[in-house]
Design a protein that fits this description.
With about 300 residues, the chain is mostly beta strands. The chain folds into 2 domains: about 200 residues, Jelly Rolls (Sandwich); about 100 residues, Jelly Rolls, CATH 2.60.120. The model has no long low-confidence stretch (mean pLDDT about 95). Helix content is about 5%, strand content about 50%. The chain is globular, with a radius of gyration of 19 Å. The protein starts with a strand and ends in a 37-residue tail after the last strand. The strands form 6 sheets. Strands 12, 13, 16, 17, 18, 19, 20 and 21 form an 8-stranded antiparallel beta sheet that branches. It has a 7-stranded antiparallel beta sheet with strand order 1-2-3-10-5-8-11. The protein has a 4-stranded antiparallel beta sheet with strand order 4-9-6-7, with no helix packed on it. The longest helix is centred in the last third of the chain and has 15 residues. Its cofactor is Fe cation. Belongs to the pirin family. It comes from Nocardioides immobilis.
Length: about 300
């Protein structure tokens, strides 16, 4: 699957490459959203400055190759996102957060991913986990497992459905057979170089899809080597409604989330200028942030459709 370019907004909009969701596929396991960006010189792109905004019914997974991002959320968490370290935020019934690249960042390069929460867990308490996986080293390859189990290593980060998330760096021409859970479907995102996945060659920013099968995925790096993210999980098995920053189960539910966020960030009909003045509610108040909160866009004229 090939990505489409999406501007994140602002006068010098940072552009990301989005491969999930798309017409051909909405989910890979519970993975429901994948933005891949960079390497972008911050002096040209303006970096990342995403003011407080809301989420429901999902977990965000932040993974960097280069740069540094400051995270703040309404559950009181304040952390840095750095290369090789995963930050997982659970929105559950509702959270708001901001993400801003730091002053020391000259180049920004990474991936922002979302995981849909199953119905039984989507009203969970908001939460946050940080984990720095150890580097695994093999014959012509290196890797870090940030979610689930791969290459004999298991991440301690908790998820609400079976998931896999790992970064692999392959030397030129290396063949790496991966033993995987045969009940999982997988996606292989190519960050740099090229890689052949079960006989199909993927280039930078492509996302190769592998359905559940015999429990082995064969990766073959191209002449320049490759760096990839391997994502996986059991087929989600539930319909979701995803719009803007919300994952819900119906149009009316998502419209209700939007109304609640707008009520928190407006005063006398106008969006407030300082996030510290946001009214308390479902999405809370981001601790220590003073950026202008992001208002929700207007809902489309048609009713939101389910994704399966």
């Amino acid at each position: 699957m090939t990505p489409r370019e999406v501007p994140l907004g602002g006068p010098r909009a940072m552009t990301v490459r989005r491969t999930l969701p798309q017409r051909e596929r909405s989910l890979i396991g519970a993975w429901c959203f994948l933005d891949h960006y960079g390497p972008d010189p911050v002096a040209e792109s303006g970096g990342m400055s995403v003011a407080p905004h809301p989420h429901t019914g999902l977990q965000t997974v932040s993974w960097l190759f280069e740069g540094e991002i400051e995270h703040r959320d309404s559950a009181g968490n304040h952390a840095m996102v750095r290369p090789g370290e995963v930050n997982l935020m659970t929105a559950g019934r509702g959270i708001s957060h901001s993400e801003v690249s730091t002053d020391v960042t000259t180049t920004l390069h990474g991936a922002q991913l979302w995981v849909a929460l199953p119905d039984a867990s989507r009203d969970a308490d908001p939460g946050f986990e940080h984990y720095a996986p150890a580097e695994l080293v093999g014959d012509g390859w290196r890797g870090r497992v940030f979610l689930g189990t791969l290459l004999g290593d298991t991440s301690p980060v908790a998820t609400y459905s079976p998931l896999l998330g790992a970064e692999l760096v392959l030397d030129p021409g290396v063949i790496l057979p991966l033993e995987t859970d045969p009940s999982f479907e997988h996606g292989v995102l190519v960050d740099r170089g090229s890689v052949t996945v079960d006989g199909l060659t993927a280039k930078p920013a492509d996302l190769a899809y592998v359905p559940p099968g015999d429990g082995t995925i064969a990766l073959i790096a191209g002449d320049e080597g490759a760096r990839v993210l391997v994502l996986g999980g059991t087929p989600f098995g539930e319909a979701i409604v995803m719009w803007w920053n919300f994952v819900g189960r119906s149009h009316d539910e998502v419209a209700g989330f939007r109304e609640e966020w707008q009520a928190q960030i407006t005063s006398d009909g106008a969006v407030i200028e300082d996030s510290s003045e946001v009214a308390d509610g479902r999405f809370g108040v981001v601790t220590g942030d003073h950026l202008r909160p992001i208002p929700a866009p207007a809902l489309p004229n048609a009713r939101l459709k389910e994704r399966r």
